[in-house]
Amino acid sequence: MKKLNVNYMYLEITRRCTLECAHCMRGNRQNIDMSEEILDNALKDVSHIHELDLGGGEPLLVPQVIESIINKIRTYGIKVDKISFTTNGTVLTPRVVELLRKLQEIAPLNVRLSHDKFHLLELYIKKLTERVDKNNELFTEMLGYNPKDKDFVMDDGIISRIGKAKSLTQEDLDAINKWIKPTYYHLSYGSPNTLDVVKMYDWDKDVVQVCGSVVISATGYLTQMDREYELEDKGPIFGLHIKDKSLLDALIQYENEYRSSLGEEKYQDYREEIDSKFKK
Ligand SMILES: C[S@@+](CC[C@H](N)C(=O)[O-])C[C@H]1O[C@@H](n2cnc3c(N)ncnc32)[C@H](O)[C@@H]1O
Ligand code: SF4
Fold first, then answer.
1. 191: in domain
2. Fewest CB within 10 angstroms: 42, 52, 210, 233, which?
3. Among 15, 17, 24, 164, which is best to mutate for testing ligand 1, by the most ligand atoms less than 8 A from CB?
4. What 8-state DSSP symbol labels residue 266?
């Protein structure tokens, strides 16, 4: 039975959220969590994940999904080197703390707490500022570092023009900048910076190596990290899904389709290029 060694896997475990940030790349929140079946299809053929990123929406809103991931990692004996997530910090309940401790038994946690102006504005409007400050103290104690100090998407001040940010203007950003100091934001045009789409090698081996980013949406599509919900299934690899098949089968299908679209000669050149780039 073939297995996958995945360099980076992002699971969009929920589309629910406690906030409605004006810049949100996802668009409007939706009442959708990643199902048990999709989780199982994502993980059952995997033997190793270098970095597992739990995304959303607000990932800490779904402890039952996190628990299910923990159980599957254990059942399938998956080795995980690092577990990451970005959170808005509003829902650090005792149940969530308990699960974070279980995650820490599996791998070190790399937690980023969003504290850009859009979040601060939302927290202020929803009267959640104090709660997040308290939660952040608890996070810091648990993790041994302040999750506000970790890199997160907007440190560079660039708002990608996707999702709700499509309707933001530079004037809106300037107004927010005037009101809440100190970072300056600007809008990026064109497509946002995205990581590599999945690339695979060692097809003939028992363990297939998967580089780039395996990003799986809550509805089971292989997608891109910087994507709004509405566009999850658009693009070269993004029509692919794991609703009724395992990740391994989906990747084999992708590779075979790519192979026939290129033709055998070009495909062999592509394989050589990928192998020489990624194989040690
Ligand atoms: C989509 S959120 C999901 C995690 C969690 N709900 C949170 O906000 O921390 C992940 C990160 O993306 C950032 N983000 C959202 N929309 C963005 C945009 N249009 N451009 C750049 N970063 C964005 C957020 O500020 C947040 O730090
Ligand atoms: S940026 Fe995060 S916290 Fe804000 S609305 Fe989007 S998913 Fe929710």
1. no
2. 233
3. 24
4. H
Answer whether 186's CB lies under 8 Å from 174's CB. no
Structural element, H or E, at residue 74: helix 63-75
Look up the domain containing 27 and give its range. Answer: 3-149+196-278
Structural element, H or E, at residue 257: helix 247-262
Of all protein residues, the one whose alpha carbon is nearest to atom 15 of ligand 1 is: 24
How would you write 96-152 as a 3-class SS string? HHHHHHHHHHHCCEEEEECCCHHHHHHHHHCCCHHHHHHHHHHHHHHHCCCCCCCCC
> pLDDT by residue (tens digit) across 180-195?
766 677 777 644 444 4
Q: How far apart (Å, rounded) are the C-alpha atoms in residues 109 and 17?
A: 21
Question: Which amino acid would we find at residue 47?
Answer: S
Task: Answer yes or no: is 159 within a domain.
Answer: no
Looking at all shown ligands, the one closest to residue 21's CA atom is: 2
**pLDDT per position as a tens digit, 51-83:** 999 999 999 999 999 999 999 999 999 999 999
Task: Give the count of domains, the chain.
Answer: 1
Residue 179 covered by a domain: no
Q: Which of 10, 23, 33, 58 to mutate to test the pocket of ligand 2 (most atoms within 8 A of CB)?
A: 58
Task: Tell me, yes or no, if the pTM score tops 0.85.
Answer: yes
Dist. CA 202 → ligand 2 center (Å): 38
Residue nearest to atom 6 of ligand 2 (CA): 24
